[in-house]
């Protein structure tokens, strides 16, 4: 069995009086893609925001590779190997692919006082990365993000997460608003991420996309994890839909 990468223990999150996460405990192992499902308001985004350091938890523990950590900012999460690709994926449309890949972490050359961006190094790494995430079309790294398709943008966002060798890549609705071919591209990148040693948490409203790519499904409802070990190979989409809505209890389905 793969090792435990991240464990969340009894996480609670209040937004004022709203109890968004209720004693949430879950584990993500190394080299696994976990699908996180739940209806609107179930708490998925809040959970992801806690794990990516974007919102503070109210109580509970986050344990990464056996050590308890505090995630006070997204920089903390990144330092602990957690990279999140949000729905809007936070790319800067006016900047080039290469600049977006290195945003805030650009390689520089020259002396301490006269350093400037190492454009050639960025372009060379960008070419490699684009190939790694399956963009075989020859797109020059200095192409602006604004001229890419939705799927290509997601690919760039994923490439950014992969290049820093994050242990965990969180994808929040990566296939939203994408066409069929672009969606297949994103799913391929997720498989590639796992094959190159990363773990992923994949959130999508489209349960069919989730089923195509995940090793395990976690379902949330009303701020709680109601199923943590659903095996997509032995469970039907209809059964998972019934767990999401609360019509079917977990006890009937085990991994
Ligand atoms: N910033 C906030 N302030 C107050 N309440 C919030 C805030 N963000 C989320 N909530 C509430 O917390 C609960 C969980 O919301 P969350 O966005 O985590 O659910 P979700 O499962 O991601 O839903 P969706 O699929 O619609 O994005 C909801 O009741 C929501 O209204």
TrEMBL record:
Keyword set includes Cell cycle:
no
Tell me which species this is from. Answer: Rhizobium tubonense
- Which Pfam families does the UniProt entry name for this protein? ABC_tran
InterPro entries, per database record: AAA+_ATPase, ABC_carbohydrate_import_ATPase, ABC_transporter-like_ATP-bd, ABC_transporter-like_CS, P-loop_NTPase
Q: Which family does it belong to?
A: Belongs to the ABC transporter superfamily.
Q: Name one GO molecular function term.
A: ATP hydrolysis activity
Q: Has the keyword Nucleotide-binding been applied to this entry?
A: yes
Which named protein is this? Sugar ABC transporter
Keywords of the record: ATP-binding, Nucleotide-binding
What are the residue boundaries of the ABC transporter domain, all occurrences included?
Answer: 6-247
């Amino acid at each position: 069995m793969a090792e435990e990468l991240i464990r969340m223990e009894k996480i609670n999150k209040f937004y004022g009086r709203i109890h968004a996460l209720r004693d949430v405990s879950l584990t993500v192992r190394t080299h696994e893609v976990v699908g996180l499902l739940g209806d609107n308001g179930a708490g998925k985004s809040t959970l992801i925001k806690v794990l990516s350091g974007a919102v503070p938890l109210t109580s509970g523990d986050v344990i990464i590779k056996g050590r308890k950590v505090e995630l006070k900012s997204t920089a903390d999460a990144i330092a602990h190997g957690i990279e999140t690709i949000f729905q809007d994926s936070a790319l800067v449309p006016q900047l080039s692919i290469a600049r977006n890949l290195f945003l805030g972490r650009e390689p520089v050359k020259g002396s301490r006082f006269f350093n400037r961006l190492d454009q050639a190094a960025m372009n060379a790494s960008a070419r490699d990365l684009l190939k790694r995430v399956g963009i075989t079309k020859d797109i020059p790294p200095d192409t602006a993000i604004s001229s890419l398709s939705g799927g290509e943008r997601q690919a760039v966002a994923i490439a950014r997460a992969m290049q820093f060798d994050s242990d965990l890549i969180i994808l929040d609705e990566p296939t939203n608003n994408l066409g069929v071919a672009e969606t297949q591209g994103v799913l391929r990148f997720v498989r590639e991420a796992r094959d190159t040693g990363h773990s992923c948490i994949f959130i999508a409203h489209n349960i069919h996309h989730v089923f195509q790519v995940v090793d395990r499904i976690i379902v949330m409802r009303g701020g709680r994890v109601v199923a943590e070990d659903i095996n997509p190979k032995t469970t039907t989409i209809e059964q998972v839909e019934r767990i999401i809505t609360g019509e079917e209890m977990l006890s009937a389905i085990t991994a």
